Amino acid sequence: MHDLRKAARSAADLATDHLACVAEGPVWRPVPEADRTWLTRQPLPAGGRPLTDLLDEVRDRILPYPMGNGHPRFFGWVNSPPSPAGVLTAPLAAAMNPSCAGGDHAGVLLERTAVRWLAELVGFPHRTGGGLLTSGASMATVVALATARHQALRDQGHDVRETGLYGQRPLALYVSAEAHSCLRKAAELLGLGTRHLRTVPVDAAFRMDTGELRRLIAADRRAGVRPFFVAASAGTVNTGAVDPLDDIAVIAAEHGLWYHIDGAYGALGILAQDAALRYAGLERANSLALDPHKWLGVPVDAGCVLFREPAGARDAFSLVPPYLRDDDAGELGWFSEYGTEQTRPFRALRVWATIAHLGRDGIVRLVQHTSALARTLAELVEASYDFELLAPTVTSIVAFRHRPPNLDTDRVEALNKAIPAAVQRRGRTFLTGTQLSGAAALRACILHPDTTEDDLALLLREIRVAAREVTA
Ligand SMILES: *Cc1c(COP(=O)(O)O)cnc(C)c1O
C-alpha cells in the first residue's frame, strides 16, 4: 500500500501537469519511430516492476502523444477535453471497482441520480428506471432500437427474443441522410437489414425533410412493409443541424412509429440562448441517446439512453440466470436487465461529479460559450473572401470550405480534401473534414471551455498556410 500511495501522488502530479501544460504544446504530433515501436511491440514481461517505474514510461512515452482533444485549439470530430471533476474521480471509481450490473451499493444507487440529472438537464420526462449509462451513443442506439424492435413485433403477437426475425413481415426504419452511422450499425446488428433502412433526404439546412419522410412511409405501407422506427438528430455531426423534432413527433404518432432522437452530441444545445424553440418536441421521443462524454466533457466512456417508459428495455433485455438471481433486487431490478452489458463500470461517478462541479449554471455557461464561439467563427468565415459557410450554425459546429479565388471546382475539392491532414501535421490546431452534398467540406466542432476568439482567427490562418503548403 505504501508503494501505491507514493505512486498515486506522483500520478496525480503527472495528470495535473499534463492538463496544465497541454495548451502550450502542439495539439497533435506524430509518434517517432522509437516510441511507436515501444507502444506497439513490447514483449510480454516475465517479471513485474514497481509502480513508480511504470509512471516514468507513462510520462516519457505515452503522455507526449495525445489525440489532441484536451487542447483548446482542437476542433476535430466531436471530442471534448476531460472535465476536471471526471479526471479527479476516475481513479476513485477504479479504487472501488464495483460492477454496476446491479446489487445494493453506491455505484448503482448513484447511477439513478446521474441518469435523472441528464434527463432534467435536457428537459426529457423522467421516471425512475427510464434510462441507463452506456459506453456511448452507439450502444445507447443498440439498446433503443432493440427495445423498439421487441415492442413492434410484440404488437404483432410475436416474441422476437424467441423467434428472431424469421418469417416476419419486413420492418422499415427511417433516418435522415445526415444521421450518424451508429444507426445503420445498430440496424445491421439487430438483423433489420439495410434494405429496409430508409434514408430521408434533408433540406437546405441539412434537416430531415418531413414531406419526404411522409412520402417514404406511405410508399412502404403500399408495398406491405411495416414502418416502425424513426430517428431524428438533435445535432448532426456534420453541421450540428437539429431536425424538426416536433413535426417528426407528429408523424411518428400518426403512424405508430417508435420515435428515437440522437442527441449524442447536441442534446445539451437546448441550453444555449434562444435554442429551446429549435428543440421543441425533444420531450416527445420514446428514447433519447445522449453522450456525457461529448459536450459535457465527462472522460470517456460515458453514454446514456433515456426512455419515456422504463418497462420496454427490461422486456427486451432482462435475462436473469439462477447464479445472478437476487430476490431483493427491488421493483426496478438490475441495470443489466435493461441493456447488453453484464459487468458494468462505475460511469456514474464521473457523470455525477462533472454535473455536481459545474452545476446547471456552469453547464449553461459552457454551452453558451462554445455556441457563441461557433457563431463568431461562422461570421469570420462569411466575412472572408476565401472561405465559404456551408450550413447554418445552430449548435457549436461550423461547416465551411476554403475557396481561394481563381481556383476551379476540382482544385477546390482536392484542396479541401487535403487541408485537414495538412493542418494536423502543423500541430498548431486540429480540424477534420467531411462530405457535404457530395463535396469535400471542413468542419470545426467547438467544445473546449478555454477556446478563445483568437484561437478561431488562428484556425483560419492555419488553414490558409496549410492550403499553400499543399498547393506548393
Ligand atoms: C458521437 C456520436 C454518436 C456515436 O456515439 P459514440 O459515443 O461514439 O458511440 C452518434 N451520434 C452522434 C450525433 C454523435 O456525435
Number of strands: 11
Please give the radius of gyration in angstroms.
Answer: 24 Å
The CATH architecture assignment of the largest domain turns out to be 3-Layer(aba) Sandwich
Globally, the shape reads globular
Helix content: 40-55%
At the fold tier of CATH, the topology name of the largest domain is Aspartate Aminotransferase, domain 2
**Overall SS class:** alpha/beta
**Ligand species:** pyridoxal-5'-phosphate
Distance between the termini: 59 Å
Strand order of the largest sheet: 1-7-6-5-4-2-3
Whole-number average pLDDT? Answer: 96
The arrangement of helices and strands along the chain is HHHHHEHHEHEHEHEEEHHEEHEEH
In total, the number of domains comes to 3
pLDDT below 50 for ≥5 consecutive residues: which ranges? none
User: How is the main sheet built?
Assistant: 7 strands, mixed
In short, what is this structure?
With 472 residues, this protein is an alpha/beta fold.
If you had to describe this structure to a student in words, what would you say it looks like?
- By secondary structure, the chain is an alpha/beta fold.
- It has 3 domains: 2-66; 92-354, 3-Layer(aba) Sandwich (Aspartate Aminotransferase, domain 2); 360-471, Alpha-Beta Complex (Aspartate Aminotransferase, domain 1), CATH 3.90.1150.170.
- The chain has helices spanning 2-21, 33-41, 51-62, 84-96, 106-122, 137-155, 160-163, 181-189, 210-222, 245-255, 311-317, 347-383, 409-426, 453-471, and strands spanning 131-134, 171-176, 197-200, 226-233, 258-262, 287-290, 303-307, 387-389, 397-402, 432-436, 439-445.
- The strands form 2 sheets. It has a 7-stranded mixed β-sheet, with helices on both faces. Strands 8-9-11-10 form a 4-stranded antiparallel β-sheet.
- Strand 10 (432-436) and strand 11 (439-445) form a beta hairpin.
- Helix 1 runs parallel beside helix 3, helix 4 packs antiparallel against helix 12 and helix 13 (409-426) packs across helix 14 (453-471).
- The protein is globular, with a radius of gyration of 24 Å.
- Bound molecules: pyridoxal-5'-phosphate (PLP).
